[in-house]
Amino acid sequence: MKTLDAAARGVYLITVTPFTDSGALDLASTDRMVDFCLDKGVSGLTVLGIMGEAPKLTAEESRVFVRQVLARVAGRVPVVVGVSAPGFAPMRELTESVMALGASGVMVAPPSTVRTDDQIAAYFEMVNETFSKIGTGGAAVPWVLQDHPVATGVQMTAGVITRVLKNSPSCVMLKHEDCPGLNKLAAIRAASDKSEIRHVSILCGNGGGLFLPEELSRGADGAMTGFAYPEMMVDVCRAHESGHVERAHDLFDAYLPLARYEQQQGIGLAVRKHLLAMRGVIASAMARRPAPKLSAADVADIERLVRRQDRRLAELGAA
Amino acid sequence: MKTLDAAARGVYLITVTPFTDSGALDLASTDRMVDFCLDKGVSGLTVLGIMGEAPKLTAEESRVFVRQVLARVAGRVPVVVGVSAPGFAPMRELTESVMALGASGVMVAPPSTVRTDDQIAAYFEMVNETFSKIGTGGAAVPWVLQDHPVATGVQMTAGVITRVLKNSPSCVMLKHEDCPGLNKLAAIRAASDKSEIRHVSILCGNGGGLFLPEELSRGADGAMTGFAYPEMMVDVCRAHESGHVERAHDLFDAYLPLARYEQQQGIGLAVRKHLLAMRGVIASAMARRPAPKLSAADVADIERLVRRQDRRLAELGAA
Amino acid sequence: MKTLDAAARGVYLITVTPFTDSGALDLASTDRMVDFCLDKGVSGLTVLGIMGEAPKLTAEESRVFVRQVLARVAGRVPVVVGVSAPGFAPMRELTESVMALGASGVMVAPPSTVRTDDQIAAYFEMVNETFSKIGTGGAAVPWVLQDHPVATGVQMTAGVITRVLKNSPSCVMLKHEDCPGLNKLAAIRAASDKSEIRHVSILCGNGGGLFLPEELSRGADGAMTGFAYPEMMVDVCRAHESGHVERAHDLFDAYLPLARYEQQQGIGLAVRKHLLAMRGVIASAMARRPAPKLSAADVADIERLVRRQDRRLAELGAA
Amino acid sequence: MKTLDAAARGVYLITVTPFTDSGALDLASTDRMVDFCLDKGVSGLTVLGIMGEAPKLTAEESRVFVRQVLARVAGRVPVVVGVSAPGFAPMRELTESVMALGASGVMVAPPSTVRTDDQIAAYFEMVNETFSKIGTGGAAVPWVLQDHPVATGVQMTAGVITRVLKNSPSCVMLKHEDCPGLNKLAAIRAASDKSEIRHVSILCGNGGGLFLPEELSRGADGAMTGFAYPEMMVDVCRAHESGHVERAHDLFDAYLPLARYEQQQGIGLAVRKHLLAMRGVIASAMARRPAPKLSAADVADIERLVRRQDRRLAELGAA
Question: Which residues of B touch A59 (CB under 8 A)?
Answer without folding.
Answer: 59, 90, 93
